[in-house]
Amino acid sequence: MKKIVTMGEIMLRLSTPDNEKFIQADEFDVNYGGGEANVAVSCANYGHSAEFVTAVPDNELGECALAALKKYGVKTCHVAKCGERLGIYYLETGAAMRPSKVVYDRAHSSITTATAKDFDFDAIFKDCDWFHFTGITPAVSDSAADLTEAALKAAKKHGVTVSCDLNFRKKLWTSEKAQKVMTKLMKYVDVCIGNEEDAELVLGFKPGNTDVTSGELELAGYKSIFEQMVKKFKFKYAISSLRVSHSASDNGWSACIYNGETKEFYHSREYRISPIVDRVGGGDSFAGGVICGFLDGKDFKTALEFGVAASALKHTIPGDFNLVSRKEVEALAGGDGSGRVQR
C-alpha cells in the first residue's frame, strides 16, 4: 500500500434529476466532489492510503463534505477549518445532442483564501509516495496558486512523485493567466495529464490534427504535442485521455501515453460508452486509475489500460466519485465488458 496526497477544493454539487433542464427543476440531487477529491476516492477504493488536503468552512456543510470523503476511506486529518463558505456547482446533465452545463458558485470559498500557514506540509508529505493536483486549484485565486506552489516545493523536498491534470476551466481564468501561472509550476511535475485543448490553453503548445469531434483520432498529433511537452518540461510521462463525442450520451473513450525516457508512444484500447450515466469526474477517475497503476508498480502501458477501464466504468455511475472496485476494473481491462448480471 502506497500513500498518495491530493490537494484542491471539494464542493457541494447540486444537479438536476432525470436529465431535467435548470428551468424545469423543482429540486436538486446532492453530491460532493472536486477534481483532486475524486482522485483521492479512487485511490482509496483501490486499497492505497489516500489523503485529501483542503480548506472548508467550520460549519455543518464543511463537515458534510468531509464526511463524504471519510465514507470511502479518504483521510482528512490535515484539512484547514477556515474561510467563509463551501463552494457550490450546479449541474444540468445533458442527453443526446444536448450538452451538459455547469454553473459555478465558488467565489470566496474557503480554499480561495487559504494560505500555506494553514497547513503543515512537512507532516503532510512525511512518508508520502505521490502528490496530485490539477490546474483548477491555482485557477480559483492568486492565493490558491501560491498555496499550490508551496505544496509542490514541500513535496519535492520530501522526494515525492508529482502528477498534474492540467484541467483548463475557461469560467475560472483566461488562457493567458493559465499559461503564466501553470508554466511556473511545471518544473515540479513528473507526470502530466491533459488533452490537446489543455496543452494549448494551459501550456501554449499548438496541437496538430487532433479534432476529437470528427469521430476519428489523429494520434500523430498527440505524439507531437507530447514530444514538445517532454522536451520543454522534462516530464517522465505525458498522458491524455481521448474522448470522441458522438453525442452527450455516446462517447468513444481511450487514452495515450508518452514515455519521456524511452520515447515510446502507446494508445490504449478504446471503449464505446453508451448510454453515459454521468461523465462528470470521468477525467479524474482516469487520473486516479493511472496513478493507482503506477503506485502498484505496473509498467506504463498496463497503468494506462487500468486508468482507461476505470474511467469507462465511472461514466456509468451517478455523482463525481468513481466507486468501482479494483476487481471490477481489472475484469473490464481484461476484456469482460459484457455487463452480464454477476450472481
What can you tell me about this protein's structure?
It is a single chain. The two termini are 30 Å apart. Helix 1 (35-45) packs across helix 10 (282-296), helix 10 (282-296) packs antiparallel against helix 11 (300-314) and helix 11 crosses helix 12 (326-333). The chain has 343 residues and is an alpha/beta fold. The chain contains 12 helices and 15 strands. It is globular. Helix 2 (60-70) links the parallel strand 5 (55-56) and strand 6 (80-81). The longest helix has 16 residues, at 142-157.
Keywords:
36% helix, 12 helices, 4-stranded mixed sheet, single chain, 343 residues, alpha/beta, 15 strands
Helix and strand arrangement:
Blueprint: E1 3-7, E2 11-15, E3 29-33, H1 35-45, E4 49-53, E5 55-56, H2 60-70, E6 80-81, E7 88-92, E8 101-105, H3 110-113, H4 121-124, E9 130-134, H5 136-140, H6 142-157, E10 161-165, H7 175-185, E11 191-193, H8 196-203, H9 219-233, E12 237-247, E13 250-259, E14 265-267, E15 271-273, H10 282-296, H11 300-314, H12 326-333
Parallel strand pairs: 1-4, 1-9, 2-7, 5-6, 9-10, 10-11, 11-12
Antiparallel strand pairs: 2-3, 7-8, 12-13, 13-14, 13-15
Oligomer: single chain
What does the average pLDDT come to? 93
- Alpha carbon gap, first and last residue: 30 Å
How many helices? 12
What structural category do the secondary elements indicate?
alpha/beta
Fraction of residues in H or I helices = 25-40%
Shape, principal axes of CA atoms: globular
Give the percentage of residues in beta strands: 15-25%
Please provide the count of β strands.
15
The major sheet is characterized as: 9 strands, mixed
Strand and helix order: EEEHEEHEEEHHEHHEHEHHEEEEHHH
Report the C-alpha radius of gyration, rounded. 19 Å
Question: Spans of 5+ residues with little confidence (pLDDT < 50)?
Answer: none
